[in-house]
Amino acid sequence: MPGFGTALVTGASSGIGAATARLLAAGGTHVVLHGRDRERLDALAAETGGAALPADLAEPSDIAHLAERMLSGPLDLLVHNAGLGWAGPLPELPADRLTRLVAVNLTAPLELTRALLPAMLARGHGRIVFVSSIAGRTGVAGEAVYAATKSGLDAFADSLRFELDGTGVEVGVVVPGVVRTEFFARRGRPYTRSTPRPVSAERVAAAVVRAAEKPGDYYVPRWLRLPVALRGAVPGAYRTLATRFGAGS
Ligand SMILES: NC(=O)c1ccc[n+]([C@@H]2O[C@H](COP(=O)([O-])OP(=O)(O)OC[C@H]3O[C@@H](n4cnc5c(N)ncnc54)[C@H](OP(=O)(O)O)[C@@H]3O)[C@@H](O)[C@H]2O)c1
Protein backbone atom coordinates (compact mmCIF):
# COMPACT_ATOMS: atom_id res chain seq x y z
CA MET A 1 0.00 0.00 0.00
CA PRO A 2 1.49 3.36 -0.97
CA GLY A 3 1.49 6.22 1.55
CA PHE A 4 -0.88 9.14 1.09
CA GLY A 5 1.30 11.97 2.39
CA THR A 6 -0.86 13.48 5.14
CA ALA A 7 -4.29 12.16 6.14
CA LEU A 8 -6.86 13.47 8.60
CA VAL A 9 -8.96 10.71 10.15
CA THR A 10 -11.93 11.93 12.17
CA GLY A 11 -13.06 9.70 15.02
CA ALA A 12 -9.62 8.09 15.21
CA SER A 13 -9.78 7.58 18.97
CA SER A 14 -11.84 4.39 18.63
CA GLY A 15 -13.14 1.56 16.43
CA ILE A 16 -12.98 1.98 12.65
CA GLY A 17 -11.13 5.29 12.83
CA ALA A 18 -8.35 3.91 15.05
CA ALA A 19 -7.96 0.85 12.81
CA THR A 20 -7.84 3.09 9.73
CA ALA A 21 -5.22 5.33 11.30
CA ARG A 22 -3.05 2.30 12.16
CA LEU A 23 -3.33 0.90 8.64
CA LEU A 24 -2.53 4.22 7.00
CA ALA A 25 0.44 4.80 9.31
CA ALA A 26 1.75 1.29 8.58
CA GLY A 27 1.74 2.25 4.88
CA GLY A 28 3.80 5.37 5.50
CA THR A 29 1.06 8.00 5.74
CA HIS A 30 1.40 10.79 8.29
CA VAL A 31 -1.88 10.61 10.18
CA VAL A 32 -3.60 13.45 11.98
CA LEU A 33 -5.75 11.78 14.59
CA HIS A 34 -9.00 13.49 15.44
CA GLY A 35 -11.47 12.62 18.21
CA ARG A 36 -12.39 13.99 21.62
CA ASP A 37 -10.64 11.55 23.95
CA ARG A 38 -7.24 13.19 24.40
CA GLU A 39 -5.71 10.22 26.26
CA ARG A 40 -6.62 7.73 23.54
CA LEU A 41 -5.48 10.10 20.80
CA ASP A 42 -2.12 10.67 22.49
CA ALA A 43 -1.61 6.90 22.91
CA LEU A 44 -2.40 6.30 19.22
CA ALA A 45 -0.18 9.20 18.19
CA ALA A 46 2.71 7.62 20.12
CA GLU A 47 2.00 4.26 18.47
CA THR A 48 1.63 5.56 14.89
CA GLY A 49 3.92 8.59 14.86
CA GLY A 50 0.83 10.68 14.08
CA ALA A 51 -0.43 13.91 15.62
CA ALA A 52 -3.45 14.21 17.94
CA LEU A 53 -5.96 16.95 17.19
CA PRO A 54 -8.98 16.87 19.52
CA ALA A 55 -12.21 18.64 18.59
CA ASP A 56 -15.89 18.22 19.41
CA LEU A 57 -17.65 18.01 16.05
CA ALA A 58 -20.94 19.05 17.65
CA GLU A 59 -19.37 22.48 18.25
CA PRO A 60 -19.11 24.76 15.18
CA SER A 61 -16.17 26.66 16.73
CA ASP A 62 -14.27 23.37 17.20
CA ILE A 63 -14.87 22.46 13.55
CA ALA A 64 -13.57 25.86 12.45
CA HIS A 65 -10.49 25.46 14.64
CA LEU A 66 -9.84 21.93 13.33
CA ALA A 67 -10.10 23.18 9.74
CA GLU A 68 -7.80 26.09 10.46
CA ARG A 69 -5.16 23.77 11.92
CA MET A 70 -5.43 21.43 8.93
CA LEU A 71 -5.00 24.31 6.49
CA SER A 72 -1.54 25.03 7.90
CA GLY A 73 -0.09 22.23 5.71
CA PRO A 74 -0.97 20.09 2.68
CA LEU A 75 -3.72 17.50 3.15
CA ASP A 76 -3.84 14.51 0.80
CA LEU A 77 -6.59 12.41 2.34
CA LEU A 78 -9.62 13.34 4.43
CA VAL A 79 -11.45 10.45 6.09
CA HIS A 80 -14.85 11.40 7.50
CA ASN A 81 -15.41 8.63 10.00
CA ALA A 82 -16.53 10.17 13.33
CA GLY A 83 -20.12 9.39 14.14
CA LEU A 84 -22.61 8.20 16.71
CA GLY A 85 -25.86 6.27 16.72
CA TRP A 86 -29.13 6.09 18.55
CA ALA A 87 -31.73 3.33 18.40
CA GLY A 88 -35.32 3.19 19.57
CA PRO A 89 -38.78 4.43 18.63
CA LEU A 90 -38.61 7.96 17.17
CA PRO A 91 -40.91 9.55 19.81
CA GLU A 92 -38.42 8.44 22.49
CA LEU A 93 -35.44 10.17 20.85
CA PRO A 94 -34.51 13.17 23.03
CA ALA A 95 -34.38 16.46 21.08
CA ASP A 96 -30.79 17.22 22.07
CA ARG A 97 -29.67 13.77 20.88
CA LEU A 98 -31.34 14.35 17.52
CA THR A 99 -29.49 17.66 17.20
CA ARG A 100 -26.22 15.94 18.08
CA LEU A 101 -26.72 13.09 15.60
CA VAL A 102 -27.27 15.54 12.76
CA ALA A 103 -24.43 17.83 13.87
CA VAL A 104 -21.74 15.14 14.20
CA ASN A 105 -22.80 12.68 11.49
CA LEU A 106 -23.86 15.15 8.82
CA THR A 107 -23.19 18.86 9.40
CA ALA A 108 -19.60 18.36 10.58
CA PRO A 109 -18.39 16.40 7.52
CA LEU A 110 -20.17 18.85 5.21
CA GLU A 111 -18.57 21.84 6.95
CA LEU A 112 -15.12 20.26 7.14
CA THR A 113 -15.23 19.36 3.46
CA ARG A 114 -16.34 22.89 2.54
CA ALA A 115 -13.44 24.31 4.54
CA LEU A 116 -10.71 21.92 3.34
CA LEU A 117 -11.70 21.37 -0.28
CA PRO A 118 -10.39 24.68 -1.72
CA ALA A 119 -6.80 23.81 -0.74
CA MET A 120 -7.12 20.35 -2.34
CA LEU A 121 -8.54 21.94 -5.50
CA ALA A 122 -5.72 24.48 -5.58
CA ARG A 123 -3.21 21.59 -5.49
CA GLY A 124 -5.22 19.61 -8.05
CA HIS A 125 -4.99 16.58 -5.83
CA GLY A 126 -6.84 14.97 -2.93
CA ARG A 127 -9.00 12.11 -1.71
CA ILE A 128 -12.09 12.36 0.47
CA VAL A 129 -13.56 9.18 1.97
CA PHE A 130 -16.88 9.03 3.80
CA VAL A 131 -17.77 6.26 6.25
CA SER A 132 -21.49 5.90 5.66
CA SER A 133 -23.71 2.98 6.73
CA ILE A 134 -26.00 0.37 5.23
CA ALA A 135 -28.72 2.05 7.33
CA GLY A 136 -28.46 5.07 5.03
CA ARG A 137 -29.01 2.96 1.92
CA THR A 138 -31.86 0.71 3.03
CA GLY A 139 -33.47 2.35 6.07
CA VAL A 140 -33.71 0.59 9.43
CA ALA A 141 -36.59 0.55 11.92
CA GLY A 142 -35.67 2.36 15.13
CA GLU A 143 -32.78 4.22 13.47
CA ALA A 144 -34.63 6.71 11.30
CA VAL A 145 -32.56 9.76 12.26
CA TYR A 146 -29.23 7.91 12.17
CA ALA A 147 -30.18 6.47 8.76
CA ALA A 148 -31.19 9.93 7.52
CA THR A 149 -27.80 11.39 8.49
CA LYS A 150 -25.97 8.63 6.63
CA SER A 151 -28.27 8.92 3.63
CA GLY A 152 -27.54 12.65 3.57
CA LEU A 153 -23.83 11.91 3.64
CA ASP A 154 -24.26 9.55 0.69
CA ALA A 155 -26.12 12.19 -1.36
CA PHE A 156 -23.42 14.73 -0.50
CA ALA A 157 -20.66 12.34 -1.59
CA ASP A 158 -22.45 11.45 -4.85
CA SER A 159 -23.07 15.12 -5.69
CA LEU A 160 -19.45 16.02 -4.95
CA ARG A 161 -18.29 13.26 -7.28
CA PHE A 162 -20.06 14.99 -10.15
CA GLU A 163 -18.90 18.42 -9.08
CA LEU A 164 -15.26 17.40 -8.71
CA ASP A 165 -14.97 15.43 -11.94
CA GLY A 166 -11.66 16.25 -13.62
CA THR A 167 -10.30 18.31 -10.71
CA GLY A 168 -7.91 15.68 -9.33
CA VAL A 169 -9.92 15.47 -6.09
CA GLU A 170 -11.79 12.17 -5.81
CA VAL A 171 -14.44 10.82 -3.47
CA GLY A 172 -14.85 7.34 -1.99
CA VAL A 173 -17.64 5.92 0.18
CA VAL A 174 -17.47 2.97 2.56
CA VAL A 175 -20.76 1.34 3.53
CA PRO A 176 -20.33 -0.92 6.55
CA GLY A 177 -23.02 -3.25 7.86
CA VAL A 178 -22.42 -4.14 11.49
CA VAL A 179 -18.96 -3.64 12.95
CA ARG A 180 -17.57 -4.82 16.31
CA THR A 181 -16.80 -1.48 17.98
CA GLU A 182 -17.99 0.59 20.93
CA PHE A 183 -20.66 2.09 18.68
CA PHE A 184 -23.48 -0.09 20.07
CA ALA A 185 -22.58 0.37 23.75
CA ARG A 186 -22.37 4.11 23.16
CA ARG A 187 -25.71 4.32 21.43
CA GLY A 188 -27.25 2.59 24.44
CA ARG A 189 -28.63 -0.49 22.69
CA PRO A 190 -26.63 -3.63 21.91
CA TYR A 191 -26.78 -5.33 18.53
CA THR A 192 -28.84 -8.49 18.91
CA ARG A 193 -29.72 -9.60 15.38
CA SER A 194 -28.03 -12.57 13.73
CA THR A 195 -27.61 -10.92 10.29
CA PRO A 196 -25.66 -9.09 9.11
CA ARG A 197 -22.92 -10.74 11.20
CA PRO A 198 -20.57 -8.20 12.81
CA VAL A 199 -17.23 -7.70 11.04
CA SER A 200 -13.98 -6.36 12.50
CA ALA A 201 -12.99 -2.70 12.47
CA GLU A 202 -9.80 -3.76 10.65
CA ARG A 203 -11.83 -5.12 7.75
CA VAL A 204 -13.65 -1.80 7.38
CA ALA A 205 -10.35 0.07 7.70
CA ALA A 206 -8.99 -1.94 4.77
CA ALA A 207 -12.01 -0.81 2.71
CA VAL A 208 -11.39 2.81 3.71
CA VAL A 209 -7.82 2.57 2.44
CA ARG A 210 -9.04 0.91 -0.78
CA ALA A 211 -11.62 3.67 -1.22
CA ALA A 212 -8.79 6.20 -0.93
CA GLU A 213 -6.57 4.33 -3.39
CA LYS A 214 -9.30 3.64 -5.92
CA PRO A 215 -12.32 5.85 -5.17
CA GLY A 216 -15.71 4.13 -5.47
CA ASP A 217 -18.33 2.56 -3.20
CA TYR A 218 -17.16 -0.25 -0.91
CA TYR A 219 -19.63 -2.40 1.01
CA VAL A 220 -18.36 -4.33 4.03
CA PRO A 221 -19.24 -7.17 3.80
CA ARG A 222 -19.58 -7.09 0.01
CA TRP A 223 -22.89 -9.00 -0.14
CA LEU A 224 -24.63 -5.93 1.35
CA ARG A 225 -24.74 -4.50 -2.17
CA LEU A 226 -27.43 -7.09 -2.96
CA PRO A 227 -30.24 -5.75 -0.76
CA VAL A 228 -29.37 -2.24 -1.96
CA ALA A 229 -29.61 -3.34 -5.59
CA LEU A 230 -32.89 -5.14 -4.89
CA ARG A 231 -34.32 -2.04 -3.20
CA GLY A 232 -33.32 0.04 -6.23
CA ALA A 233 -34.82 -2.39 -8.75
CA VAL A 234 -38.02 -3.44 -6.95
CA PRO A 235 -38.61 -1.18 -3.93
CA GLY A 236 -42.06 -2.58 -3.11
CA ALA A 237 -40.89 -6.20 -3.07
CA TYR A 238 -37.80 -5.20 -1.10
CA ARG A 239 -39.92 -3.48 1.56
CA THR A 240 -42.19 -6.52 1.91
CA LEU A 241 -39.21 -8.85 2.32
CA ALA A 242 -37.32 -6.51 4.64
CA THR A 243 -40.37 -6.07 6.86
CA ARG A 244 -40.88 -9.83 7.03
CA PHE A 245 -37.24 -10.55 7.84
CA GLY A 246 -36.99 -7.59 10.22
CA ALA A 247 -35.24 -4.42 9.02
CA GLY A 248 -35.15 -3.61 12.72
CA SER A 249 -32.26 -2.67 14.93
N1 LIG B 1 -20.09 0.01 14.32
C1 LIG B 1 -20.95 -0.19 13.33
O1 LIG B 1 -21.65 -1.20 13.30
C2 LIG B 1 -21.06 0.80 12.21
C3 LIG B 1 -21.81 0.43 11.08
C4 LIG B 1 -21.94 1.32 10.02
C5 LIG B 1 -21.34 2.55 10.10
N2 LIG B 1 -20.62 2.91 11.21
C6 LIG B 1 -20.01 4.24 11.23
O2 LIG B 1 -18.63 4.11 11.43
C7 LIG B 1 -18.13 5.30 12.03
C8 LIG B 1 -17.18 4.93 13.16
O3 LIG B 1 -17.92 4.25 14.16
P1 LIG B 1 -17.32 3.10 15.08
O4 LIG B 1 -18.13 1.89 14.85
O5 LIG B 1 -15.86 3.02 14.94
O6 LIG B 1 -17.76 3.66 16.52
P2 LIG B 1 -16.92 4.13 17.80
O7 LIG B 1 -15.92 3.11 18.18
O8 LIG B 1 -17.96 4.55 18.78
O9 LIG B 1 -16.12 5.43 17.27
C9 LIG B 1 -16.78 6.65 17.05
C10 LIG B 1 -15.74 7.73 16.86
O10 LIG B 1 -16.44 8.98 16.60
C11 LIG B 1 -15.94 9.97 17.48
N3 LIG B 1 -16.98 10.93 17.86
C12 LIG B 1 -18.22 10.68 18.31
N4 LIG B 1 -18.84 11.84 18.64
C13 LIG B 1 -17.94 12.83 18.39
C14 LIG B 1 -17.96 14.25 18.54
N5 LIG B 1 -19.02 14.91 19.04
N6 LIG B 1 -16.87 14.96 18.17
C15 LIG B 1 -15.78 14.32 17.71
N7 LIG B 1 -15.68 12.99 17.55
C16 LIG B 1 -16.76 12.26 17.90
C17 LIG B 1 -15.47 9.23 18.71
O11 LIG B 1 -14.50 10.02 19.36
P3 LIG B 1 -14.38 10.14 21.00
O12 LIG B 1 -14.66 8.78 21.54
O13 LIG B 1 -12.96 10.58 21.21
O14 LIG B 1 -15.39 11.15 21.36
C18 LIG B 1 -14.88 7.95 18.11
O15 LIG B 1 -13.55 8.17 17.73
C19 LIG B 1 -19.34 6.11 12.46
O16 LIG B 1 -19.57 7.15 11.53
C20 LIG B 1 -20.48 5.11 12.39
O17 LIG B 1 -21.71 5.71 12.11
C21 LIG B 1 -20.46 2.06 12.25
Automatic annotation (TrEMBL):
Which InterPro entries does the record cross-reference, listed alphabetically?
Answer: KR_dom, NAD(P)-bd_dom_sf, Sc_DH/Rdtase_CS, SDR_fam
Q: Name one GO cellular component term.
A: membrane
- Alphabetically list the UniProt keywords: Oxidoreductase
Q: What's one Pfam family here?
A: adh_short
The record ties this protein, via PROSITE patterns, to: ADH_SHORT
One term of GO molecular function:
oxidoreductase activity
Please state every residue range assigned to the domain named Ketoreductase. Answer: 5-182
Q: Which family does it belong to?
A: Belongs to the short-chain dehydrogenases/reductases (SDR) family.
Name of the protein this chain belongs to? Short-subunit dehydrogenase
